[in-house]
Amino acid sequence: MNSARVSHGFILMVLIALILSCRGELKDQDGNILSTVKIGNQEWMAENLDVGHFRNGDTIPEVKTPEDWIRLGSEGKPAFRTDEDNPENNRKYGKLYNWYAVNDPRGLAPEGWHVASDEEWKQLTEYLGGEVATALYIRVTGYNEEGNVTSKSGFSGLPAGSCGGDGKFYGTGTNGYWWSATTFSPTTANVFQLNYLHCNTYMKDYYKAAGLSVRCIKD
User: Fold this and answer.
1) What φ, ψ does residue 105 adopt, rounded to 5°?
2) How many domains, in total, are found in the chain?
3) CA dist list (Å): 40 to 45, 49, 81, 110
């Protein structure tokens, strides 16, 4: 039993070392330099998307009131919001986008990248060993010497919470929600959720008018 535990622990240490050795960078359409991390056969952004423009240069509308957020969501128009309307949260968590920004033909992801699909999120979960193991690997564990967040996988899954279709904020500090590019119904799309309190991850559907984090994967 003890030898089995040692062997399993060694395998996990090797896996973490391999993941952390496969780091890279990319520049988004706003000129931000983002870290990337290779996990299995996938290369992910290590940080949440934080752009105010589509790939073609058009501005994504920024919303600062619940009323405007509700209106744009009901009209099916793209928008983003800063978590809790706090600039400090924007620097920490990135922006919260509605799904209409995610699905806009002008392109939300940087060149050569795309918003991850439902199947790509599932592939990540399977590679990391299931829903609970994935939560342990991607949730934030601390900060490095440069003040940047760290996690066991380098993915840095921050609990940015969400902005509901009603314009109110939910789950900041306890849950991370990331859009998938996969639609579920005319009004909902699939979402990858990380629950810090229960240390779990799972897929669910969420209203397209809500504001969630976005994480991209290399083409």
Assistant:
1) -65, -15
2) 1
3) 14, 21, 32, 21
Residues 6+ apart with CB under 8 A from 131: 125, 200, 201, 202
Quote the tokens at residue 207.
């209203």
Residue 216 carries which DSSP code?
Answer: E
- Tell which residue, 144, 129, 156, 158, has the closest CA to residue 15: 129
* Two tokens, residue 114: 């795309």
Please name which of 146, 155, 102 lies closest in space to residue 128, comparing C-alpha atoms: 155
Lowest mean pLDDT among 16-25, 54-63, 199-208: 16-25
Residues 48-72, mean pLDDT to the nearest whole number: 97
Strand ranges, E, within 72-185: 80-81, 96-97, 113-115, 142-143, 149-150, 162-163, 169-170, 175-183
Full domain range(s) for residue 163: 2-218
**166-211 pLDDT per residue, tens:** 999 999 989 999 999 999 999 999 999 999 999 999 999 999 999 9
**Confidence bin at 128 (pLDDT 50/70/90):** very high
Q: Classify the phi-psi angles of 112: left when phi > 0, otherwise alpha if psi is within -120 to 50, otherwise beta.
A: left
Instruction: Please provide residue 72's backbone torsions phi and psi, each rounded to the nearest 5 degrees.
Output: -65, -35
